[in-house]
């Protein structure tokens, strides 16, 4: 089990943030807030929550500990949160893996996504860019890439660092008819390192990890996984518009509290978190990284996770992604 960066963030100066969210004077909390990130450092999920924590630090007087615990499609982090003692408020930052897809991937889970967690809010939607290393893949368009793949006698390889990226790759493989095998990674930054090293052929990479390498010209984006183009990269076409209608895969990033967290505390935390992102500066932070702002209520998050438990489950079964 990989444990990456741990940041102990002292939060000081109560008041402004909760008021900006429509509430009254912000209050400190009587216990430490522990935030466990289900994925590795440097990816979209980790980047957002560290930005949120930094903004809350400027407004609220309660300590927060952030810790990465990637692995097993987020199950390691979810189980870890539930094992923690009651001397703190324990939060999980994750996405469709722990609270939608894993119910179909794994025969059984050591946690119940609804019973054991209280939804707080969604943070953002993360598109996936289909990226290649120009030194390994000479095709400059998606059509050329697919043509070369079909003409190849061997099998291509594609990386995935989370369930959403894996589903995008599997749907792409199935819809295009190319022969490709998956290489799983524990963190998106590790997958990117190997892409830059020419270790495999293509990667549906999360926007935060892909963006700096795309802007530096080190990787080539052939398409984006969402139904519409991403404003930060308007010249990158969608897979759907290039001949594969209906292709639409993205991931949402969200945060939950352990169910043992008092409702009043959950509401306060949700207000602070939404307040850090639902403003011009927060929205710009997301869009600059090709993420799409998605503020929401606990009810919104619960509805999304229930929807994708069904929808992602269909894709998982069709692609044969279940653990044996």
Helix content: 25-40%
Q: Note the gap between the termini.
A: 21 Å
| Helix and strand sequence | EHEHEHEHEHEHEHEHEEHHEH
Inertia-based shape: globular
Look at the helices and sheets and give the structural class. Answer: alpha/beta
Low-pLDDT regions:
1-25
Mean pLDDT: 88
Largest sheet: 11 strands, mixed
Bin the strand percentage. 15-25%
Number of helices: 11
Rounded to an integer in angstroms, the radius of gyration calculated over CA atoms is 20 Å
Please report the total strand number as a whole number: 11
General description of the model:
The protein has 324 residues and is α/β, with parallel strands linked by helices. It is 39% helix and 21% strand. It contains 11 helices and 11 strands. Strands 1, 2, 3, 4, 5, 6, 7, 8, 9, 10 and 11 form an 11-stranded mixed sheet that branches. Strand 6, helix 6 and strand 7 form a beta-alpha-beta unit. The longest helix is centred in the C-terminal third of the chain and has 22 residues. It is globular and about 65 Å long. The chain starts with 5 loop residues before the first strand and ends in a 5-residue tail after the last helix. The N terminus is likely disordered.
Give a quick set of tags describing it.
324 residues; alpha/beta; eleven-stranded mixed β-sheet
Secondary structure layout:
Elements: E1 6-9, H1 16-20, E2 32-37, H2 44-57, E3 64-68, H3 75-83, E4 88-94, H4 96-105, E5 117-132, H5 142-151, E6 156-160, H6 163-176, E7 180-184, H7 188-196, E8 202-206, H8 207-215, E9 220-224, E10 250-258, H9 263-277, H10 280-287, E11 292-293, H11 298-319
Parallel strand pairs: 2-3, 2-4, 6-7, 6-8
Antiparallel strand pairs: 1-3, 4-10, 5-8, 5-9, 5-10, 5-11
